[in-house]
């Protein structure tokens, strides 16, 4: 049996497995906290102040060649991660799990997936386009972003907190490499962080996305 055919079967089973687990184990009422610091201390307030931490304004470019700013996140539940196209280590597994999210929420207009390149000097729009095609990235749901390295690293470390406590003390001279996925709500506030290599974490992320849609 051809390897590609076996890979498609395995991927399909993975999607079904994660989605079914998320559906079966989601509690009746799931309340998500808010986070405003890199130590991810949860705040279970019913609502938070207008000046509560949120992803700041930015200006990047999607693999489609179009500008992508914070305005594209407004009014949408977003999942963000940080990767690079030539990564041989954790990125392939993260890409598989982002693809699971893409296929799970493909027709849901409330959800946006975004992957920021941490090597934007190498990951041009053309390279991201080629990568997107090879990984079956659907631009209706999932966008790969490039742009200023300083912008991307500042967003990742100081606003998404993807390296948690360590990230706030580092700048763009130190390579950003993390397996974390970050969930933000329709006002760009952080509502969850997840290990992008873990199937149980993906199950929780899917359940949390659905809980956010009910808020």
UniProtKB/TrEMBL annotation:
The keyword Nucleotide-binding does not apply. The keyword Ion transport does not apply. Keywords: Copper, Disulfide bond, Metal-binding. One of its GO terms (molecular function) is metal ion binding. CDD domains: SCO. InterPro entries: SCO1/SenC, Thioredoxin-like_sf. It comes from the Bacteria. Cu cation binds at residues 87, 91, 177. Disulfide bonds join 87-91. Belongs to the SCO1/2 family. PANTHER family: ELECTRON TRANSPORT PROTIN SCO1/SENC FAMILY MEMBER, LINALOOL DEHYDRATASE_ISOMERASE DOMAIN-CONTAINING PROTEIN. This is SCO family protein. It comes from Spirosoma telluris. The lineage of its organism: Bacteria, Pseudomonadati, Bacteroidota, Cytophagia, Cytophagales.
